[in-house]
Amino acid sequence: MIKSIFFNAANLLSISRIFLAIPLSISINKININSDLNDVFLFLFICFLVAVSDILDGIVARKFSLVSNVGKVLDPIADKICVLVVITALFSEFYEYFFIFFLLILVRDLIISGMTLYFIRKKNMHFQANMAGKLFLFFIGMTMIFFVIDIPITVSEKFVYLYEIKFFTYYASWFFFSISTYYYFVRYFRIYN
Q1: 142 in helix, strand or coil?
Q2: Spatial distance between the Cα atoms of 18 and 15, rounded to a whole number of angstroms
Q3: Distance separating alpha carbons of residues 77 and 18, to the nearest angstrom
Q4: What is the count of structural domains for the chain?
Q5: Which residue in 36, 102, 172, 183 could disulfide with 139, CB within 3.0 to 4.6 Å?
Q6: With bands split at pLDDT 50, 70 and 90, how would you rate the model's confidence at 66?
Q7: What is the pLDDT of residue 193?
Q8: Own/partner long-range contacts of 67-71 (Cβ < 8 Å, ≥24 apart)
Q9: Contact residues for 13 (Cβ-Cβ < 8 A; gap 6+)
Q10: Radius of gyration from C-alpha coordinates of the chain
């Protein structure tokens, strides 16, 4: 019974995303100022697989009635691992843009994870991500992709609007990070009190 709840198709897609963090980390760490388009395309392909698995696990869970409490915990963990892999790599390359962001995401996610575990253990309550959280994940994902593909000189020379696009998604990420953080904490404190 436990095996069938944990190892359903939706949860396996989330687990696959955790394992995709390994090639994601390898591909992003190979990109440098002298990288060619093949390195960038490999990174983008792995990002595509991560995104598809994230979209599909929700669709599969809802369509085949596989929504589970395990999945509600596993899905955001997989997302956080992939985001932290990329943001850690960007942290060394773009310190001024990602140092504070990295720290805030890390602290917020540790607090949210702790509160989530508390509500699961003490009150048997499981929460799903809010819409602002999903939008934050989308924009931070796009920001990280645009920052990574802007590293090689050959790529950034070909895409003239890359600078404007990456900063649009960067500031949108901050905006949705703030809103989603507010909603997460309001929800937890309302239930806690």
Answers
A1: helix
A2: 5
A3: 8
A4: 1
A5: 172
A6: confident
A7: 63
A8: 67/10, 68/5, 68/8, 68/10, 68/11, 69/120, 69/126, 70/5, 70/6, 70/11, 71/8, 71/10, 71/11, 71/14
A9: 53, 56, 57, 60
A10: 18
Amino acid making up residue 56: L
Average pLDDT, the chain: 87
Q: Which residue has the tokens 């590293």?
A: 151
Structure tokens belonging to residue 24: 């994601």
DSSP 72: H
The DSSP secondary-structure symbol of 91 reads: H
CA-to-CA separations, 135 to 110, 142, 169, 175, 189, in angstroms, rounded: 20, 11, 11, 10, 22
Distance (Å, whole) CA 142 – CA 121: 35
- Residue 189 backbone phi and psi in degrees, to 5: -70, -35
Q: Which amino acid is at 145?
A: I
% the chain with pLDDT above 70? 93
CA neighbor of 25 nearest in space, from 73, 74, 90: 90
Contact 150, 33 (CB under 8 A): no
Which residues fall within 8 angstroms of residue 172, CB to CB, at 6 or more apart? 139, 143
**Full domain range(s) for residue 46:** 2-192
Structure-token pair, residue 164: 């404007």
What is the distance between the alpha carbons of residues 154 and 193, in angstroms, rounded to a whole number? 55
Q: What is the CATH number of the domain that holds 44?
A: 1.20.120
